[in-house]
């Protein structure tokens, strides 16, 4: 069971976004998937789409760190300003190629980041994400 039935990918690397999409589609073919190469556009989507929803739409956000114009830390600063009903329905996972301990510590310290994942996304990673969220919500993985 995937309580969060939508995935949002924010990464300036189009190839990574395509890879993530293929892996998610394979594991959760009925999920909604949207990706953004422009982090500002991705943030605008979150702010608008989730503010309009009645409260039942939920999403897993895969967020890269190093992007032009707006990096993950700036994205998270803006995310903090959103309404609680929006923030509560989006679970953020950093998905980065960075193995910098400072990045990992910064992500761990951010209350909106569920977990720090190293690229590339794999089948096992998607299962881990959903398992973590289901466990947190007291739901079964089936």
What's the layout of helices and strands?
Blueprint (H helix, E strand, L loop, with lengths): L5 E5 L3 H14 L4 E5 L2 H14 L6 E5 L8 H9 L3 H4 L2 E7 L4 H9 L3 E6 L4 H15 L5
Helix pairs in contact: 2-3
Notes on the protein architecture:
With 142 residues, the chain is α/β, with parallel strands linked by helices. It has a single domain (6-137), classed as Rossmann fold (3-Layer(aba) Sandwich), CATH 3.40.50.2300. The chain is 46% helix and 20% strand. The chain has six helices and five strands. It has helices at residues 14-27, 39-52, 72-80, 84-87, 101-109, 123-137, and strands at residues 6-10, 32-36, 59-63, 90-96, 113-118. The protein has a five-stranded parallel β-sheet. Helix 2 (39-52) runs parallel beside helix 3 (72-80). The longest helix is centred in the last third of the chain and has 15 residues, at 123-137. The chain is globular and about 35 Å long. The protein starts with 5 loop residues before the first strand and ends in a 5-residue tail after the last helix. 27% of the residues are buried. The mean pLDDT is 92.
